[in-house]
Structures are given as C-alpha cells and as structure tokens.
Amino acid sequence: LYCGERRKQADYANDRQGITWTRFIFADFWNTWRRKLSQNFATIKSITDNVQSVLQGQGIKFSRKTFDDEKSIPASLIPFGEIYYKSEDFQYTHGQRAGYVEAGFDVKIILRDADAIGLMRLTQKWAHTVRDALTVNALNIVDLVTSKLVSWVEVEGVEIDYKSEYCVLALKVKIRYREI
Length: 180
Prior knowledge:
The protein is of the alpha+beta class. The chain has 3 helices and 4 strands; from the N terminus they run αββααββ.
C-alpha cells in the first residue's frame, strides 16, 4: 500500500511535468506569435501614418471628424483627404526568403471648385501630385527610416466622381513591405 501511494504520487508528478512542458511550449509559441503580430502591426501602422504625412506635406488636410457628405466639409479643410486600409495579401515564403506583405489602401481626396473646368484641372493636378508623392523613399521615413521595410509602391489608378461643384478622387494604392 505504501509503495502504491508512492507510485501514484510519482505518476501525478510525471503528469504534472508533462502539462508544464506543454504549457511551456504553448507559451513560447504564443509569445513568439504575439511579438511577431505586434511588430507587423507596428509596421502597417507606421506605413499608414507615413502615407498621411506625405499627403499632408503636399497640402492635403485630414481631420478625425467624419462628415456625412462633401457639402458638410468646411472650406478650410479642402482639399480634404481620407485614407482607408482595404486589404493585405500575406505571401507564403516556405522559409527561404523574408516574407512580404502587400497592403491595399484607398486614398480619397475631396476637392471643390465652382468652375467645372477649374475642377477638372484641379482633379488632374491632385491625381498626379499624389501619384508622384507616394514613393518608396517617401514612405520609409520616421519609424521605418532605419529598417527600410517598404520595398514597392504602386498607385494602380484613380476613379473620379464629380458631384456639381465637388469632386472625389479615389486612388487605389498598393504598398509592399517586408515582414519582421
């Protein structure tokens, strides 16, 4: 009986060590995954902030306030910009090279001019200004200046929606960055 109790205690200790080892492996996996998640989140956050900074440098204004329609935007905020995070394409690397991600953004710019021809010229100017401003070097600033994680930027195109004296430019932008 005494030997049996000792065996139960030994079995219990072995089971407990197995659980502890399993918990250790899971905790290690969890911490690694969480660390990687937070690093990639920091990268995409920095890229988004840098897109806004570059566009602000060109003269586009941003606001934390949302507006129901173009007519409710104050004249002091025109040209008004909005950045929408639309997608990310995670590429599988097979462990042979660094992983890359392609992030998709919609950049909207709202313009106003009472003259139709003036609005059209303004639209053309801003479409090309934004396209020329969003470059790899322009986005590898602030938090990304040393790591140079952004490796490719493409402005795929622009769609324009005219509404009387207002115009909404919607630019589709893809940005490739290296995963950490």
